[in-house]
Design brief:
Blueprint lengths: L1 H16 L7 H4 L1 H14 L6 E3 L5 E3 L8 H4 L6 H16 L5 H6 L6 E3 L5 E5 L4 H6 L6 H12 L8 E4 L13 H18 L3 E5 L1 H8 L5 H4 L4 E3 L2 E6 L2 H6 L4 H15 L6
Parallel strand pairs: 4-5, 4-6, 6-8
Antiparallel strand pairs: 1-2, 3-5, 7-8
């Protein structure tokens, strides 16, 4: 809790140094929301796990509502208020110096992009070289494939929100380290608490394991729903994996069909 309070204080100090003197009610409550969500997440870290049954099969323990009350703490507001809250949080992210190696390696932070009122949020692993230069997630080859997946679902990129577990590019695009993901987690929770999506799609094992705090493989997590911050979570393969293993595109489409059915959307032919 001391770390969370320190992070909140650093965020407010960063806004003051940036010349921000007032915040809309939506943004002003982000600190309390992040603290509540993070505390509940820590308490529920063991909620998603695999258990061996008597016959040796594994059964998933669905993620219980993690800090389900946290989104309710934010009053209903217009899109400009959620956009302002995200912008305020993005300003704090831009000044983050928590991970020395990532700070030395990055060109800029990569916060997130999309509709502040998105029903669906895609969560990836971390920015790559193209994303580091553009300051926007999923703009490289994997991003182009993600755009095709979104379009195949009958959606537009502008309708959804896209973000990552990390907001800085790891050196040589390596997998995020556990302590890096942990330091960036308050920002992850903050974004999700502002947007309050009904559905989250984790792209790849890194995103799924870090969001749900589970060691399970992506192959095992696929094909079922979990719950996080009041949203239904589905896990599928990362687009970068699909570029290397095109045969897995069929399974990814099955995952997206499952997601579309839960969203009440027609499945395009």
């Amino acid at each position: 809790m001391a770390d969370l309070r320190r992070a909140a204080a650093q965020w407010l100090d960063g806004l003051r140094r940036g010349g921000v003197t007032h915040l809309p009610k939506q943004a002003a409550r982000v600190v309390a929301t992040v603290e509540t969500a993070a505390r509940s997440t820590v308490e529920g870290e063991e909620s998603v796990k695999a258990e061996r049954t008597a016959d040796g099969s594994r059964n998933a323990q669905p993620m219980p509502p993690v800090a389900e009350s946290a989104p309710a703490r934010i009053a209903e507001s217009g899109p400009e208020d959620r956009a302002a809250a995200l912008a305020a949080l993005a300003a704090e992210v831009a000044q983050c110096r928590r991970c020395d190696e990532l700070v030395r390696n990055r060109t800029q932070t990569v916060f997130g992009v999309g509709n502040p009122h998105a029903e669906l949020v895609f969560v990836g692993e971390a920015p790559g070289a193209d994303e580091d230069l553009r300051g926007e997630p999923f703009v490289g080859a994997a991003g182009q494939l993600l755009n095709k997946i979104i379009a195949a679902c009958g959606l537009k990129r502008e309708e959804v929100y896209i973000m990552n577990i990390l907001r800085c590019r790891p050196p040589n695009n390596r997998t995020p380290l556990p302590d890096e993901a942990e330091r960036c987690r308050p920002f992850l929770l903050g974004q999700l608490s502002i947007i309050r999506p009904k559905f989250i799609c984790c792209l790849g094992a890194c995103a799924a394991q870090n969001l749900l705090q589970t060691p399970e493989t992506i192959g095992w997590l696929r094909g079922r729903f979990f719950e996080f911050l009041g949203a239904q979570v589905v896990c599928t393969y990362h687009p970068a994996y699909l570029l290397r293993n095109p045969s897995a595109k069929r399974q990814t489409w099955e995952d997206m069909q499952m997601l579309l059915r839960a969203m009440g959307r027609e499945i395009p032919k």
